[in-house]
Amino acid sequence: MAALRRLGVKGVEIRKPEQLDSVASLIIPGGESTTMAKLAEYHNLFPALREFVKMGKPVWGTCAGLIFLANKATGQKTGGQELVGGLDCTVHRNFFGSQVQSFEAELPVPDLASKEGGPETFRGVFIRAPAILEVGPEVQVLADYPIPSNKVLDSNFGADALEEKWSEKKVIVAVKQGNLLGTAFHPELTADTRWHSYFLKMASDVAQGASSSIVAVGGGDFSLNRRQINDLPVFQ
C-alpha cells in the first residue's frame, strides 16, 4: 500500500463481508487468482463484493483483481473460478505466460496523461499477467499492448473469430467502465502514482457518508520491494 501512503491515503484490509460496509471504495490487488477465489469463497465474500459493485462504489482490480472483476475469463484451470463480475469484458487469465515471462513495457496512456499530467506513457509491470481479449460497448479502453507475431492465442475463440478480433494485433491492458477500473499490470510497483490518483478521483466523486479508505480485499499487500522486479525484459 506504499503508493497510497505516498498520496496521503491510509489503506485498510478487508477480510470479512461486513467490513465492506464501512468503506467507500475498494482495490482488489494482484496475486494467484485461483487461491484468492477460494479464500473469498471460504469467507463468503463474493455476495458482498458483487453488491459493492452493484451499488456503484469504485472498485479497482489489478492483475488477478482484474480477472475477478471480469464478466468472463478464459485460460483458467479445470473447473474455472468464481468471479465477481460487473466489468463487461473477457479476460485471458495468463495471456502473457508464466512467472518467468514477466516483463515491463512502456504503454501509451493518453487519457491518464490528460487527466493526471506527466508523460504520455506509463511503465507497465506485467507479472504472470492477464490480458483483456474483448470489451463491451460501455467499456473505455485506457491502454493496449501489441501482440508479438509469434504469440499463440487462445484456441477457444476459434480461427475465424481470432482473425476478426486480432486484426489490429493488440490486446487491452487497462479499462474503465463506470465505477470499475481494471489494469492487467501492477502500477503499485513503480514510483509513478498517477493510476492511484486517477482512482482516488473516481472514489471522491461518489464517496458520500462512508469512510474514504481505500482497501485491499483478502489482506493482500501489494507494496512489494521494487528491487524484486528490476531489469525485467520487454515482452517479445
UniProtKB/TrEMBL annotation:
Keyword Hydrolase (UniProt): yes
Keywords: Glutamine amidotransferase, Hydrolase, Lyase
Active site per UniProt: 63 (nucleophile), 186 (charge relay system), 188 (charge relay system)
Leading EC class: hydrolase
Source species, domain of life: Eukaryota
Pfam (any one): SNO
NCBIfam families hit by this protein: PLP_synth_Pdx2
Protein name: glutaminase
Organism: Morella rubra (Chinese bayberry)
